[in-house]
Design goal:
Layout lengths: L7 E9 L4 E3 L6 E2 L4 E11 L2 E9 L4 E2 L4 E3 L4 E10 L4 E9 L3 E4 L18 H20 L6 E9 L4 E3 L11 E14 L2 E14 L2 E2 L5 E9 L5 E8 L17
Parallel strand pairs: 1-9, 11-17
Antiparallel strand pairs: 1-2, 3-6, 4-5, 5-8, 6-7, 7-10, 8-9, 11-12, 13-14, 14-15, 14-16, 16-17
């Protein structure tokens, strides 16, 4: 934990598929010996921001604090990085890990979901995060999401489907009939802001019917010079109910 702290932005949030989430002061890295990265796609919303969407396979990995063994399969990741001028290095702003638990470690105390972290977010920033999330929800309900997305945004879904740049988004294929939310967590560092929460959609995800159950979400925003906020990375852990016959299966990313 001490080793990795210098690489985490002050607004850092990490979300895992089983509901675990962390901020910079509470993050416990997974125990990983081997890993492979495939299908890396990079976008740059600004000179000091990088968004990366890719797949990772990590045989034998486990969570050190919750005693869960993770899948060996190739699973998506979505990570955003922010350049820190003071430290003169890139730091992780948000990280979405779509890998799933497949077993528990014998003899360990199983903790499926650690307590959600308390963060020193101001009331003003908490309200800002809530308003941004509600604006995003309303845009999806209206089928007009594009105006809230940065041109270099990336979106990743648990199914492996994803979007690179807002130009790839077809509004008619991404529209909810209703949407519930809970458990909002907001972190901010000057011109970037991260939001994680649980969402329950009813509608379409990239043209497919979504599973209407509670799933985690993690979104990173950047502030424009004019003051508006735009999404640069969106991790949606919801799955689709069924993929129609004839749809080709592709690797994550």
């Amino acid at each position: 934990m001490a080793f990795i702290q210098p690489y985490l932005d002050a607004a850092f949030q990490l979300q895992r598929a089983n509901g675990e989430r962390y901020v910079a002061t509470t993050y416990v890295p997974a125990d990983i010996d081997l890993f492979a990265i495939e299908g890396l796609i990079e976008t740059r919303p600004t000179e000091n921001l990088i968004v990366a969407r890719y797949g990772v396979s990590a045989p034998g990995s486990s969570t050190a604090d919750t005693n869960l063994v993770l899948s060996d399969e190739l699973r998506p990741r979505l990570t955003s990085f922010r350049w820190d001028d003071t430290a003169a290095q890139w730091k992780v702003l948000t990280h979405a890990n779509f890998n799933v638990p497949i077993a528990t470690i014998c003899g360990g105390e199983l903790l499926v979901q650690p307590p959600h972290p308390a963060v020193p977010t101001s009331e003003e920033d908490s309200t800002l995060g809530l308003n941004l999330m509600l604006a995003l929800r309303d845009a999806i309900l209206a089928g007009n999401l594009t105006p809230l997305l940065d041109q270099q945004t990336q979106i990743q879904h648990a199914s492996g489907m994803g979007i690179t740049t807002s130009a790839e988004l077809v509004p008619a294929e991404y529209k909810y009939r209703s949407f519930e939310y809970s458990d909002l967590l907001v972190t901010r560092n000057e011109d970037v802001l991260a939001i994680s929460y649980l969402g329950k959609p009813d509608g379409l995800v990239l043209g497919f019917e979504a599973v209407d159950e509670w799933h985690p979400r993690l979104i990173a925003f950047r502030r424009l010079e004019e003051g508006q906020w735009r999404v640069i990375a969106s991790a949606n852990f919801v799955n689709v109910k069924a993929v129609p016959a004839g749809v080709e299966c592709v690797a994550a990313g």
